[in-house]
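Following up on my earlier message about zinc ion. Here are the inputs again, as you asked, copied directly from the submission form:
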Amino acid sequence: MKPLIILEDDRFIWETELNEFVPNRIFDAHTHFYDTRLMSKADHEKYAFMQACPRVGLAELRQLSAMIFPNRELHSLASGMPRRSTDLAATDAMVGEQVTMDPLSIGLMLAHPRLSRAEVEKQLDRTGLHGFKPYMCFSTSPDPSQSTILEMLPEYYWQIANDRALIILLHMGRHASLADPVNQRDIRKLCERYPGARLQLAHCARCFTSQIAETGLPTVADLPNVHVDTSAVCETEVFHILLDVWPRERILFGTDNCVAGLMRGKYAGFGKGWYGIFDSNTTAFQAPHVPFPPTFVAYENLRALRMAVRRKGWGKSEIEDLFWNNAQRILFRVG
Ligand SMILES: [Zn+2]
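Thanks, got it. Here's what our run produced:
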């Protein structure tokens, strides 16, 4: 079984909507490497993709990316796959080793609150990684989905990030995400206290709905050491709001490959929240009135982003900033 099949309909969407929009050089600011041998069966067996592709490092990411973004040069910010069972030390070592093969890619270590300050520093030194990837599954909260930032990333991580000018890639917790005042207050407090840390708010600050974007994005947009990646968001209106209220030089393109960006389906706002509607088996998907199967989340994401960019009237240089220059300036800054 192949991990990725490109259908004629996918090619049509790429050729007619996306090919002209996506520049030749892409910095993908949100990617994951994994090795299924470094996590439990239960954690990887639920992904058909991982069954077909048991390990993704630099070469595999590039091969897969080249299938959906033909003829593009690609570099990335990568971290391991955060799952409760992930072997952290071995995964970080793999990510570190993979990114050293490409001087234009960098990696982050998985940040678990159980690691002591000394262990964190040692792991950074050992792997050469450029920052932290916390996640809800590692949180100390009794309800991980309601995790505060410090329950995922204790304050000593922020101190280290400040001292070493590291990147923190945060997929926020709490149901209301950035519309939650607890998250808004913590981001402000921590980013002002630790100006050397570079905070990347994943998925447009986890704004998968326009309601969360409208309430949340303006509250932290002024913080100079906070940027967002665009990965996996499929709602056009979220990008309209983002481009209206967020400084454009602090927006980085990302896919969340692998796996999220390569799933077929989309993340859609539902009620007060959102839901990922996926179909990993395209032959099983049945839409009542059209014969078309779903396409990749990465394509739905680019479609939404392109509409917002178009309405904003961005030209080639703004688009190249989004796909490349902003990441170079923010992520590769030394000191
Ligand atoms: Zn991710």
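One observation from looking it over: The chain has one domain: 8-331. Hope that helps, and feel free to reply on this thread.
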